[in-house]
Here is the input.
Amino acid sequence: MIARVSASFSAPLMRSLAQPPLRGRDDSEGFCVIFSPADAESGTATPSGEESQKNYFSHSLLPLDNTCIKDYITHQHRKKQIFIPLTIIYMDSIPFEEFPSSFDSVSNLYRTYLSNFSLVEKFYNGHYKNISTQADLLESVGKRNVNRSHIAAILEEQQIRMGTGREAEAHALLLQHDTTFAVVTGQQVGILGGPLYTLYKIITVIKLAEKLNNQLSGYNFVPVFYLEAEDHDYDEISKVSIINSRNELQTFQYFPEGKPFEKNPGSVGSIVFDNVIEEFLNGIGSELQQSDFKSGVMAQLRQAYKSGVDFATAFTDYLVKVLPNSGLVIVDPRDQSLKNLIKPIIKKEILTHSKTSEIVIKRSAALEQSYHAQAKPRAVNIFIQHRGGRYLIEPRETGYGLKGARQRFTEEEMLSLIDNSSELFSPNVLLRPIVQDYLLPTFAYVGGPSEIAYFAQLKDVYQHFDVTMPVIYPRASATVIEEKVQRTIEKFDITPFDFFMNLDLLQKNVTSKLSDVSIEDVFSKTNTTIDDNLKELRYALQTIDPTLSASFDNARKKIEYQVNKLKQKAYDAQRKNFSTAMRQIEKAALHIAPDETFQERTYPLFQYCNKYSPEFVSWLFENIDIDNFNHQLLMR
Here is the structure.
């Protein structure tokens, strides 16, 4: 993608063009500056650092090679002009610290984790960028007391039942050996496969396991996906949004019997689809854009999501279909055999819940001095299935109760229930990582922004349960920039990053570029003139009668209000004059940052498989760089 911008540069910068090789400011940069064919063949160009340029460009994109530059120049400038206007080849990624605070998924803690890990290092157990050098962590995880052979056998049986493939079965069996470690990720069982970032997690965990296998001889690393099938946030996992055939954002939500739940539905992974799922899929099929691949994509969804199948099973089946023979070991924590194995963790939480709560509160308070605590501390971090619902256990003066229910248990009754009906118990968001890493020899966990924040509260909780905390590796984050969107970006001389800012401001900037009149300039001059005249008027009025100051201030506010109102009307009129351009900007924004959030958090994989074929999954595997910890821009 080519984007043109105007900027001024210093004489030393111009002289720097004679210095080979062609690259950016450092190894992490990803744009190239070109002034002429001769310069491009041997020179270096780096923006002079004016504030406008700092705001406009990413600091960390990968360098492009000379061939790319020369091919572009040869194609675009056959006459070999002596001077080519500043050209930026803008690809690759955007550092998370550049995103506006309005992106709630980009917290200050997450920004710091990625850009200056030393500031938050005390909350974690190892630096993700030095993951291959952490021998002490490998040794600690290797000393686990859990029966590896038993767990490996359970997981092998799960892979056979799920049909994940022979490689996944072999990986599950490898976990019985002391030199094998798990590289784990997990996600809620979102309907129709969930949003794109679920796949980005999987790509990261598979590639990270492969990377560690290549770097650390004598060890085996196995990619694992832990199904978060026992959550109860039904609203989050039951929706899917697509860009429909009218180029609109459209959201669909599935409810059994076609209506919202009137009571606690229990663990979402165990909710069974009824005949309404066919109506749900028909609705999506009728709105999904037409393509050569639509029938196959919809058939794949219907094979996984059908009446009589629960959310977790359908989610797993769909994953296996889009990722055949990936070697990914999928873990279903609802398995009775696994439930029996985690009894020690559940019992310890029941008996020492006040200590766990104290630890979390103390760590949360430390976090909140500079950042935020992602999860609210709970008195007890365990849920129990009761009469079809999933309820949080709470301590009472004598024994325990259930939040939102009248059921009561003595401590003896609760411990007996754990022994005899362990399938009823499940951890909450803070205890789930402890349970997961108690069962698995987890060396690294691949997590998104929210999970990285959760883990910051858990280092001492891991120690309390005598479980080793893994390294937390940031999942890949990306936006797919489609060709038609690229054309809009080039046409209006903007960048992908502009769409992550305020859309209203972007439209104003574009209309200003297209118009012969700059509203901002005109009103800036007008406001300066008004301000100067009002200062003279205020001085004169104070000389005449100091009591007129209040009336002056009131009149000034009215003047400023009317001028700003007129300015907005001018912008509205200007937009109307360029209504076609505004619609193109809005459509591009719908693809890049729907509802001013990340594309990866909104759209499902099948939307892109429908457009580009199921091979889109392989394309993502090839193009996502798991060592690029910025938000990547993937040009399709």
